[in-house]
Amino acid sequence: xxxxxxxxxxxxxxxxxxxxxxxxxxxxxxxxxxxxxxxxxxxxxxxxxxxxxxxxxxxxxxxxxxxxxxxxxxxxxxxxxxxxxxxxxxxxxxxxxxxxxxxxxxxxxxxxxxxxxxxxxxxxxxxxxxxxxxxxxxxxxxxxxxxxxxx
Amino acid sequence: xxxxxxxxxxxxxxxxxxxxxxxxxxxxxxxxxxxxxxxxxxxxxxxxxxxxxxxxxxxxxxxxxxxxxxxxxxxxxxxxxxxxxxxxxxxxxxxxxxxxxxxxxxxxxxxxxxxxxxxxxxxxxxxxxxxxxxxxxxxxxxxxxxxxxxxxxxxxxxxxxxxxxxxxxxxxxxxxxxxxxxxxxxxxxxxxxxxxxxxxxxxxxxxxxxxxxxxxxxxxxxxxxxxxxxxxxxxxxxxxxxxxxxxxxxxxxxxxxxxxxxxxxxxxxxxxxxxxxxxxxxxxxxxxxxxxxxxxxxxxxxxxxxxxxxxxxxxxxxxxxxxxxxxxxxxxxxxxxxxxxxxxxxxxxxxxxxxxxxxxxxxxxxxxxxxxxxxxxxxxxxxxxxxxxxxxxxxxxxxxxxxxxxxxxxxxxxx
Lengths: 151, 415
What we know:
The structure holds 2 protein chains of 2 kinds. Chain A is mainly beta. Chain A has 1 helix and 8 strands; from the N terminus they run H-E-E-E-E-E-E-E-E. Chain A has a 5-stranded antiparallel sheet, with no helix packed on it. A 3-stranded antiparallel sheet of chain A has the order 2-1-3, with helices on one face. The relative contact order of chain A is 0.18. By secondary structure, chain B is an alpha/beta fold. In chain B, the strands form 2 sheets. Chain B has a 9-stranded mixed sheet. A two-stranded antiparallel ribbon of chain B has the order 5-6. Chain B has helices spanning about 25-40, 55, 65, 85-100, 125-140, 145-150, 155-170, 175-190, 205-210, 235-240, 280-295, 300, 315-320, 330-335, 355, 360-375, and strands at about 5-10, 45-50, 75-80, 105-115, 210-215, 215-220, 225-235, 250-260, 305, 390-395, 400-410. In chain B, helix 4 crosses helix 16 (about 360-375) and helix 8 crosses helix 13 (about 315-320). The interface of A and B includes residues 11, 12, 13, 14 and 21 of A.
């Protein structure tokens, strides 16, 4: 039967989340093809993306704690996605499987989850080194970081 | 036998439109302020009670994203969601955990972040909360459009106009008294550094000049949709000694939380037996029980001040009667005489209250924080001049049927 839209209500319910100042900086830096982290002065823990509170020792952090990462990372583990939803409740096969990996950036203590490209699932091994691939004209938003590839 | 429990620290985020922080950072602001105020280490905290109305900030399980921001990793944490009362309910949960003997030191924090809604005010949040109700209405054959016109939009806000009219009919008070209460809220808020709608020297005439929105409510009567977080830290009597807390503390003497059948439209929309929304039997029973537990016999004489959950001015009048501070239908006369001002005989909402600052989840907790600050004499510019031995913190919410009452005092109740 598909989706029934209920019309005539005088309002809609949408959200517009604020990321906070530090996360804003994180995305702004994407325009320069840079990934930044926050390094705690108290315990040395380095977290990507950066935060205002150290997740390890709870020390307060701010813009002074921001450090540049060189972008290189190491694959910790990965999974391969072979199906997607078609929007009508059915699965369809992906022409090319998507690889999603947990990676640890060089100099960071936390991990991030990213797409991997230019690599076959069969070639992937924990410990493989990867580098980011950026959009041709980055604008300082999440979609600037296309994927990571072996390098 | 419940143990004696003290509030040893309070923290608030600056309330208002906080687009400079995300939800986790907002919560952390209040939490770390409270930890600093208590003068304890984060390791001293054994468990966390947290609460908000998740639909309002658009994050379904917010407690999952901020544990690392508030030092809660690896510690017990429980979330509460009871609508407008959530701050009161979360405050009660933290108290239960210490009073029961389960833990010695517990942190309770609650918050809301309205500015993460794309629609103005609380519209997005209220709609998300109402989705379950809306889908139920379709099941019983009600049309959502007609219900929207009836004023559900704002489970509490929509109903408040009916409630105000009913209260006026019962008490004989006039719209001018709502103007006086709202002006007091703005003036008091101007003295509170954490408040949202500040208007120094605001008068009833200033409020009377604002547009009539939905009779009998003017624009100047309506609370803002704020962002904010409030936090308290509880400790058992033994822990107060062990931690060497030397600053003044506020003792929890009695709590009670009752609901009545005044849910808007009744449970499952089959109608409700209560026709007078200003009756609020739940508030009456909560107060009686909380006073009994606190050993208070005459609230008019023994309670020194109150922080009432009143997003709209008629509710401050209505609840101050329901909670036993004034006789029925007499609160507006007390307001005329200045009794409820900061320097009056029975100050109500010296912080400016919910009418001046309403970050839904935070609001109930903020009443507890503000009552505790008055007892600790740490309310700074809005500290009431007279002695504060006993103070009441009230919250109201759900679909208008929940009430929580906490009595705080400057000494633990004698056993």
